[in-house]
């Protein structure tokens, strides 16, 4: 999802760089509309900005004793990432543009050339289409979804779909890759819409003045989303046409970031309480809600939730008082490990097609690059090397004989 993934540097707080991205994809990344109705969430996200800016301008301070354990350093064999490619955002040529590399960091190519800002969105099932959020300030701030057709390692077509609006957020593919569900302020504070991959008239799915946000689409078309229609942000589900709306969560706490498990049986989400914003899981009907950790979180904020392809693990970003790190949690056992280096501001984890390798963006010495992590060995490898920020990775599977990349499958392993 294009959530509130904070990746800030002191020199990138305006225009179409990191600062603009805060407005585009939120703090991972959040301009969540429902924050306007949530003082707790507003304070939390302001704290994230302060934390990120402070980390970019000052040396890291020793972290306090954490609930999670830090992954031990080892001397593993040579790193062997799964085949495929990574699409990501880089500012190495002055403004946010899309680039692609192989999963081992080789073969860098630029995909888009635009005077405005381009931000990587989800890749369609099958890997043949990529969503891009285009932002321009040429005649007032406007945002629009673009669909990039992908074949033989190249962008074949760049098509704008859906409305151009001041806020377009969290686009998500339907399971068959033929349509996109997204949130926009086109006719309201924020509502959910559906548009075909090839364009056409968007269909409005929700109509509530308090706002609807963060759609996640299951294989059968069921949409999990956040709504503030009852004054407190909660998780709801509805059918693909917007009917049969059901509320799944109740107070205490504000709920956000719903993400379907790969098999569609569970939803992971974040519940915000007085002391922390913690990851929970529940069944698809809202039953059996529980913190995913065996030991409840005492402070800090979870975001960027990412199910492993097997559904055994959740990777996420955890923002604490002195750190921003990627953590891995075994869903059934509730055990947790910090997998990013202590010296890095790490976030935006994405799986490379199986449970074996994660990629994230990490800022070290005020420089944001992409890193890969091998779960079994604990080995971390730097994939990009440039003084300008590289961030928001998206994985494309390997290209078969027909030249069209498809997601890879491999036996999973839990942390």
Written description of the protein model:
7% of the residues lie in helices and 43% in strands. It contains two helices and 29 strands. The chain is mainly beta and 415 residues long. The radius of gyration is 19 Å and the shape is globular. The protein starts with 17 loop residues before the first helix and ends in a 19-residue tail after the last strand. It has helices at residues 18-25, 39-57, and strands at residues 69-70, 85-90, 97-102, 109-110, 117-123, 129-136, 142-151, 154-165, 168-173, 179-184, 191-196, 199-204, 212-217, 223-227, 234-238, 246-247, 254-260, 266-272, 276-283, 290-291, 300-307, 313-319, 324-330, 336-338, 345-351, 357-364, 367-374, 380-382, 390-396. The chain has one domain (18-396): TolB, C-terminal domain (Neuraminidase). The strands form six sheets. Strands 1, 17, 18, 19, 20, 21, 22, 23 and 24 form a nine-stranded mixed β-sheet that branches. The model is unreliable at 1-77 and 399-415 (pLDDT under 50).
Short description:
By secondary structure, this protein is mostly beta strands.
Quickly list its features:
disordered C terminus; mainly beta; Neuraminidase; 415 residues; 2 helices; single chain
Question: Which secondary structure elements does this structure contain, and how are they paired or packed?
Answer:
Elements lengths: L17 H8 L13 H19 L11 E2 L14 E6 L6 E6 L6 E2 L6 E7 L5 E8 L5 E10 L2 E12 L2 E6 L5 E6 L6 E6 L2 E6 L7 E6 L5 E5 L6 E5 L7 E2 L6 E7 L5 E7 L3 E8 L6 E2 L8 E8 L5 E7 L4 E7 L5 E3 L6 E7 L5 E8 L2 E8 L5 E3 L7 E7 L19
Parallel strand pairs: 1-24, 19-21
Antiparallel strand pairs: 2-3, 2-29, 3-4, 5-6, 6-7, 7-8, 9-10, 10-11, 11-12, 13-14, 14-15, 15-16, 17-18, 18-19, 19-20, 21-22, 22-23, 23-24, 25-26, 26-27, 27-28
